[in-house]
Structures are given as structure tokens and as C-alpha cells.
Amino acid sequence: MNTLADLQTAVDKRRTFAIISHPDAGKTTITEQLLLLGGVIRSAGTVKGKKSGHYATSDWMAIEKQRGISVTSSVMQFDYAGKRINILDTPGHEDFSEDTYRTLMAVDAAVMVIDSAKGIEPQTKKLFKVVKQRGIPIFTFMNKLDRDGREPLDLIAELEELLNIEGYAMNWPIGMGKGLKGLYDRANQRVELYRPETEAQRFLPLDEQGQLTVASDLVKDNVYQQALDDVDLLNEAGNAFDPDKIKRGDQTPVFFGSALTNFGVETFLQSFLEMAPAPAKHVINDGDESLSPEDRRFSGFVFKIQANMNPNHRDRIAFVRICSGVFEKGMDVTLARTQKTLRLNNATEFMSDERENVENAVAGDIVGLYDTGNFQIGDSIYQGKEKIKFAPLPQFTPELFVRVTPKNVMKQKSFHKGMQQLVQEGAIQLYRTYTTDDYILGAVGQLQFEVFQFRMKNEYNSEVIMTPIGSRTARWVDPEQLDEKMSSSRNLLVKDVHGAPLFLFENAFAERWFHDKYPDVKLTAKL
Length: 527
Ligand code: G4P
Description:
The chain has 527 residues and is an alpha+beta fold. The protein folds into three domains: 17-72 and 91-275, P-loop containing nucleotide triphosphate hydrolases (Rossmann fold, 3-Layer(aba) Sandwich); 282-382, Translation factors (Elongation Factor Tu (Ef-tu), domain 3); 400-524, 2-Layer Sandwich (Alpha-Beta Plaits), CATH 3.30.70. 24% of the residues lie in helices and 30% in strands. The protein contains twelve helices and 33 strands. 44% of the residues are buried. The model is unreliable at 48-73 and 351-357 (pLDDT under 50). Guanosine-5',3'-tetraphosphate is lined by residues 21, 23-29, 51, 92, 143-144, 146-147, 258-260.
């Protein structure tokens, strides 16, 4: 990559996004179809054989194998229609973690996959909120059209009501389930048949008035007439297509399809690539400056640290989202937090199921750096003399808490060392009880505790006992207003790693009770 024009061309090609969904909506299936289209895999069923027992990345953490799920998000890269696509996967299990949230900080767009029989489910809603706060484009794929699902108009209305985002239907189902005939494609002015007699008949063109230009039995079909009526309604009373709103994440283009039968997926991908943004500028150095992705100085931030991907080596991998410039193996960079210089010798790039050495990764791409303990989540790295520091990653307030004690009290040293070091990575929150200094861990999902326990044993030879104290709401309190007597089992008083006091409330009732009893005491949720 010799010239600025080369770098610009390379950056312009990048499309980096995550797929968010509730478990079982079809995220893995659609990811596989996208990888098939990109020529990365040759048959479906290779990404995650969660039931067949085949694991894509066979040397990942043992815990991942035991549970048959992906503990942390992986990155898949492929080329399609002149674009280089990076899909950042997010665990589709209910035990998702802060990693899932943080991965959403490293993408430029999100695709929301919804089961059209179920509509918007809880995990989709949680993930959606995080994406919405970022103000990036959100695309929707209503999946499983080959099954009987909810009325499409209902699904669009639900988007608006539950997620408070406008929906714009790019295409519209003609029938569903056994009666699925095709898609009325408003965006491409054509009908896409579900089961065409020949491949050449898959697409039937529409004229300016939205009527078929070729003779087809479809027009005699009730479901086709129904689709036309619905589309008329959308044209008259639905939202107008608005690229600016889409850019800000205030309107979501909605696509219908069936990932399993590979129907509507390619149409979706093509439109998505036209609309999804290339890497954008980043605000740096406390909001004072902005950094263009085409700036020649390499820079990026760590959004996740994955330990022990290969049990034979005690390696950790820091996942870096490149924000500007070109990554080159062996380059020297500065770690903004410590101002230390690091040489980036070993880097990996993640193709669907193998790790390959990186060449010429640019802004928008993700590289995995072998880490011997230098990095923390949220770290900025940069090339050159002028400091580049990205905005800190948001902290996601933990909802689940456990008390941690060593199994063997004689092994206090390795216990404390493990606790301190693992917490430093930034994936899990540590608190100490106010008077007794007990260790309390807080996480977004149960899985983070299991990973923590596993790593304590494997990396620090320290077996720990975790006693759940359940789901709690964390509220910080002004130290000036604090009286230790305010604490009870329903609102456990702890301090965070900075020594700031907070209460862990058992439930909303306990919090209300506290407010009633101490109306002057101000509590804050730190997000
Ligand atoms: P996830 O990653 O979001 O958790 O979902 P995944 O793709 O694993 O899909 C969950 C289930 O839904 C799978 O069935 C999958 O085959 C099915 N599925 C996905 N897309 C479609 C679709 O468009 N139509 C229909 N009818 N089904 C779809 P399973 O029986 O739970 O698993 P498996 O044994 O097929 O792996």
C-alpha cells in the first residue's frame, strides 16, 4: 500500500458489522449463508455444529467445548462484490457477556436478525439498545419466512413500538410458510420467486407502477394480491425511505427472507453493502480532534481480550479494531495508557475457522495481537509521535454478582494474584465488601464467572468457590452522605476498584425502600 489513494481505496471497501439477535433466531444460519456467498466455506453447517459436536475453532477454550457455545465473539472476513466484509460475531447464547456489548463498539453497522414467528425477543432488545446509543445504521432481517409467522405489518409495527425505530420495508413477503411464493422487492423493482422453475425465472421485473411486466400465474394468487395491497398501504401510509435517518440509526431497512433455505439472503447482502457505511472518522484525545480512517498513521483500540485460545500456549489475544492507517507486522506502536513502545510481531487475522497471518489490514479490519499482559480492554495504540487516544469504552453495569473465596486457604498468594490480574483485563468487575474486604465479582452474564473460575484454576492454579448473591442493581453513593449503618443484606455495601462506595440492591423494592428511608441520599447508576 504505497500511496494515499491506495489506502483510501482499501478503506472504502471495508464493511464491518455485527449480527445481533436472540438465541435461535437464525444468526448462525445467516452467517453461514453469507460466508457461502463470500466463498469462505463450501457447505453449510461448518461454522458452529452446536449439536453435531464439530467446533469451528477446535483449539478454543475447553469451557467453550464443554458448553458447545462460543464464549467470545469471533471475527470473519471475506470479499464480496468488491467489498471486504468483516463480520464480528456475538455469542447467541443467553449467557452473553460484556464482550458482546463491547464488540458492538468496534463495528460500523449492525444487522438485527428476528424470528418472524416470535418478533422482538429480550436479548435482541438489550443488544439493540447498545447499538442505538452508538447512532450507527441498523438493518433488519426478518427470518424464517418458510414457516408460518406473524403478519408482516405487525412485525414492522412492533419494531416501532418496542424499539422506537422507524421500519422501512425493502421487500415484502408474498405468502409465508407452505404458501410462501416470493418477495415483492420494492427496492429493486422486481419479484423474487421462492421456488422458480428455472434459475433464469427467479427475478420478475416490475414496471414504474409496481406491476409485473411479464405474464405470471402469480397474479392469480391471493397471496400476491394481499402483498400488493400491503405494499400499497406502505406506499401511502408507511415511512418514507430516508438515507439520513438510516445513517443515524433512526430508521431501519427491513428485509424478509429465510436463512435456512437461502432465500432473500443475497438480495439482503447486496442492498446492505450499498447502504452500509465504510469506516468513519473517530473522535480522539478527549473529543478535541478527529481522526480520519485514511490517516496514514496506524491506530486502533482493544475491544476484547481472549485468553487461552490455544491451550498449549498460555497466550492471550487482544482484539484490536483498526481505526486508521495500515497495520504492518513488526511495527512499533505506543500504548497510550502507559506511553510504552511495543513491537507488534505476532498478529493474527481471523478467517472463519482458521487463523492466518495478517497482511495489509487497514482501518475497519480487526487484528488479534498476541499479548503477554500489556493490554487492557479499551487501550489505544498508535504509530508515530503524536498521541492518539480513543474515547473510553462504556462500562456496562453488571447485573449478576458472586462472592469469591479460595478453596485452599493456604494458597492465598496465587488467589490474590489471579484475582488482581484477571480483573485488570477489564472483562469482569471486582468489588470488595466495605468492612470485611471480601471479593465480590460482578458480570453481565453468568458465563463470565465460569470463564473466570476456569482461568483461575488453569492459569493461576487457584481453585475458587463462587457463592452467588444473585442479580443485583448497582448504585453508587456519595461518600459524604454514606453511613455504614445504611447497609443490610438487601443493599450490600461494597467499594469498586477505585475505592468508590456503592450499594448492591437486591431488587427494585429494596431500592425504593432505601429511597424512602434516606430521601436525601443521592444514588447514581454509573453507565
Ligand atoms: P442462532 O445462531 O441465532 O442461535 O440460530 P441458528 O442459526 O442456530 O438457528 C436456530 C434454529 O433455527 C436452527 O434449527 C436453524 O436450523 C433454524 N433456522 C434458522 N433459520 C431458519 C429459517 O430461515 N427457517 C427455518 N425454518 N428454520 C431456520 P435447530 O433445529 O434448532 O438446529 P439445527 O439442528 O438445525 O442446527
